Amino acid sequence: MRPFTYERARDAAGAVAAIDGETMFLGGGTNLVDLMRLGVARPRHLVDVTRLPYAAVEETPDGLRIGATARNSDVAAHSLVRERYPVLSQALLSGASGQLRNLATIGGNLLQRTRCPYFQDVTKPCNKRRPGSGCPAREGAHRNLAILGHSDACVATHPSDMAVALAALGAQVHVHGRDGERTIPIPGLHRLPGDRPDRDTVLEPGELITAVTLGPVAGRGAYRKVRERASFAFALVSVAAVLDVGDGTVRDCRIALGGVAHVPWRAERAEAVLRGAPATETAFREAAGAELSAAEPLRDNAFKVPLARNAIVRTLLELAA
């Protein structure tokens, strides 16, 4: 590991002011420290933001506010989250391991690097690490990589389970930067790769996530994760869904997919097909097919298309039951 210096931020303004081109925020460190050990991330200075006063989970007139330094395990277990947004609680409990969830923060989880094995191997070219060097994953090992929204420059997938649930819930991310505060929606925080896969989000240098807010949601929600082993594994495909059914008809639905794209993928085509449709398996399959018609699988990951379709249908059937 390369030498670096460290400081603990006293307030958001001080944290933001300390950031320059070689300085990074440190939350739980469950992703950043790994990347530093591998030589992928090489900050000169770390600003620890975990002691900032953003760890509360609070009821608001419009829903719920979750502080960015709240630990994943605490948010997953919080009574308001479990009662009102079970899809979020389930997604958080599907991520990593209990030990890592006790360290990881909400803000840090959102800012995990979208990655693949080539990104983490500094002996290999990678457009995310060094733009213009190439993407060996396209012709190499890509079984668990993207089928939607990828580009010639990158086919990596976003690893967060939580972010998939937040995309389905239409969360708002609150950030503090040098120019003040602003709010960014999810989807909207994370970027598709295009020709700049080195930029995972729309955040400007020095912007600090302070909170995530959730509005009211009608219907039932659930999170389903398909993976190669029972724990501590990224999703091959995941589905976060909220379904509101009345008199056998879909009044509203929100669907997001994980493990299939560079970002948490909001399934807007599927949602459009389902609104006003009967809550039947036939309609659910039609909606899933409409969403996945845009898929462009690579040589070894075409299995993700039927896997995603079946996961969507199964999740919606269970919510409609």
Q: Mind sketching the topology for me?
A:
Blueprint: E1 5-8, H1 12-17, E2 23-26, H2 32-38, E3 45-48, E4 57-60, E5 63-67, H3 72-77, H4 79-84, H5 86-94, H6 98-103, H7 106-110, H8 162-169, E6 172-177, E7 180-185, E8 208-214, E9 220-226, E10 237-246, E11 249-258, E12 265-266, H9 268-274, H10 281-292, H11 304-320
Parallel strand pairs: 1-3, 2-3
Antiparallel strand pairs: 4-5, 5-8, 6-7, 6-8, 9-10, 10-11, 11-12
Question: What is the CATH topology of the domain at 220-320?
Answer: Enolase-like, domain 1
Please state the second-level CATH architecture of the domain at 220-320: 2-Layer Sandwich
Poorly predicted ranges: none
- By CATH reckoning, the class of the domain at 220-320 would read Alpha Beta
**Strand tally:** 12
What is the number of helices?
A: 11
Give, in order, the helices and strands.
EHEHEEEHHHHHHEEEEEEEHHH
Mean pLDDT: 97
- Rounded to an integer, what's the Rg over CA atoms? 19 Å
**Structural class of the helices, strands and pairings?**
alpha+beta
Describe the protein.
There is one protein chain. This protein has a domain at 220-320: Enolase-like, domain 1. It has helices spanning 12-17, 32-38, 72-77, 79-84, 86-94, 98-103, 106-110, 162-169, 268-274, 281-292, 304-320, and strands at 5-8, 23-26, 45-48, 57-60, 63-67, 172-177, 180-185, 208-214, 220-226, 237-246, 249-258, 265-266. The chain has a five-stranded antiparallel β-sheet with strand order 4-5-8-6-7. It has a four-stranded antiparallel β-sheet with strand order 9-10-11-12, with helices on both faces. Strands 1-3-2 form a three-stranded parallel β-sheet, with no helix packed on it. The protein has 321 residues and is an alpha+beta fold. The chain is globular, with a radius of gyration of 19 Å. It is 28% helix and 21% strand. The longest helix is centred in the last third of the chain and has 17 residues, at 304-320.
